[in-house]
């Protein structure tokens, strides 16, 4: 069994498509710890194709200061690598 270390405050998740399933479960578990701060970069074809889209938006709304989600859709303009690095670095410091 996997038991996440709840003592670590900051986490970053990268997911695409159905790869969100284990991340979603871990994020919900980690948010049980009041000190948890999480960023999720989640890529899909479109908003319509996004698994857990509404549930994730609600989770983010309920945890505004602790959960930061960036949805990226391939049917729109691509997010450049430099922008992704900047988003992660601004959250965690220089990589």
UniProtKB/TrEMBL annotation:
Keywords from the UniProt entry: FAD, Flavoprotein, Oxidoreductase
SUPFAM superfamilies the UniProt entry points to: Ferredoxin reductase-like, C-terminal NADP-linked domain
Pfam families: NAD_binding_1
InterPro entries cross-referenced by the UniProt entry: CBR-like, FNR_nucleotide-bd, OxRdtase_FAD/NAD-bd
Cofactor(s) demanded: FAD
UniProt superkingdom: Bacteria
Tagged with keyword Flavoprotein: yes
GO MF annotation list: oxidoreductase activity
Domain Oxidoreductase FAD/NAD(P)-binding residues, every copy: 13-72
Stated name of the protein: Oxidoreductase FAD/NAD(P)-binding domain-containing protein
Species of provenance: Niabella ginsenosidivorans
Lineage summary: Bacteria, Pseudomonadati, Bacteroidota, Chitinophagia, Chitinophagales
């Amino acid at each position: 069994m996997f038991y996440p270390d709840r003592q670590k405050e900051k986490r970053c998740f990268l997911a695409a498509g159905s790869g969100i399933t284990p991340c979603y479960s871990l994020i919900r578990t980690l948010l049980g710890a009041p000190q948890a701060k999480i960023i999720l970069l989640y890529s899909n074809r479109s908003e319509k194709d996004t698994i857990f889209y509404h549930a994730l938006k609600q989770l983010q709304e309920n945890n505004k200061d602790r959960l930061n989600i960036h949805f990226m859709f391939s049917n729109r303009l691509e997010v450049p690598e430099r922008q992704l690095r900047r988003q992660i670095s601004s959250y965690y410091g220089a990589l």
